Amino acid sequence: MSRTFYVLNGPNLNLLGVREPQLYGSTTLAEVEQLCRSVAQELGYACEFRQTNHEGVLVDWVQEARENAAAVVINPAGLSFRSIPLLDALKTLDQPIAEVHITNIHRRDALYQHSLVSLAATGVICGFGPFGYEMALRALAQRLAPG
Questions:
Q1: Measured by CB atoms within 10 angstroms of the end CB, which terminus of the chain is less buried, N or C?
Q2: Mind listing the domains of the chain with CATH numbers?
C-alpha cells in the first residue's frame, strides 16, 4: 500500500493570505503545505502537495492518485460547486477522500453551500481554517490504520 497522501488544492488557493483575508485568514498556501508535510511525516506518510487553477489539471492529479496515493485530501475551492468532471474523477478512487474547506460553506451564500465533491468524499471538514487540513490528514491516517 502507498504511504503517500495527496493534498490537492483548486483555483485561487494560491492567493491564500492575500485574497479576502477577512474570510480566509492570513495563512498562506506555503504555510498550509508546511503544516501538511509536517503532519504527514509525523504520521509516517509522504505528502504530495499541489495547487492548480485549472480544472483539467486537478482531474489529472486525481487520476494519478488512483495509482499512487494512500488517501486524498482535496480542497476543490470553487470547483466544489460546479465540476462534474472532478466529481466523476473522485468517484473512481478506492482510497478514502477528505474534502476540506477553510470556511464553513454552510454559513455562506447559497451559491457556496452545496458541494458536488461531497458526493464522492469519505468525509468533509469545513470551517476550521487551515487546521482543517491537519484534521483531514489525521482522520485519514486513522481510517487507514490496521485493525
A1: C
A2: 4-144 (3.40.50.9100)
Encode the chain in three state secondary structure.
CCCEEEEEECCCHHHCCCCCHHHHCCCCHHHHHHHHHHHHHHCCCEEEEEECCCHHHHHHHHHHHHHHCCEEEEECHHHHHCCHHHHHHHHCCCCCEEEEECCCHHHCCHHHCCCCHHHCCCEEEECCCCHHHHHHHHHHHHHHCCC
Residue numbers annotated as active site: 24, 101
Q: Is the distance from CB of 2 to CB of 15 less than 8 angstroms?
A: no
Q: Which are the contacts of 18, defined by CB distance < 8 A and separation ≥ 6?
A: 28
Largest CA distance in the chain: 43
User: Per residue in 21-69, pLDDT tens?
Assistant: 887 888 999 999 999 999 999 999 999 999 999 999 999 999 999 999 9
- 5 pairs with which residues across the strands? 47, 71
Q: Which residue has the cell 502537495?
A: 49
